[in-house]
Amino acid sequence: MNTPNGPVITGVHHVCLTVTDLDASMNWYQQLFGAERWPGRLPHYAREKTGFDHISFEVADRAALEAWMDRLDALNIGHTGIRRRPNGPYSTVVFRDPDNNQLEFAAPAPPDADS
What we know:
Elements: H1 22-33, E1 54-58, H2 62-74, E2 79-83, E3 90-96, E4 102-108
Parallel strand pairs: 1-4
Antiparallel strand pairs: 2-3, 3-4
């Protein structure tokens, strides 16, 4: 998924979220990702009330994380900045949607990277 002239997501196929206001959430995600809505609604087969822990969107590298932070800043969406567990294999930028669902961008981190 790409934003116009912006950063790129290289992975994630499908996600279903539990939200309090479907239209407000769709507007928020549409604005964040510069996406177009797919007409209609897909059935969830009686799992509409199932929640989730978080979703991680894969990005290519630290430069992509920085580009996504710039996009989040431009949209006034708070985030953690780039974080990495000591010697962890990837770095993340964590943020939340209007329903406080945790989302993150994750990029592989070279073994010698600081964050």
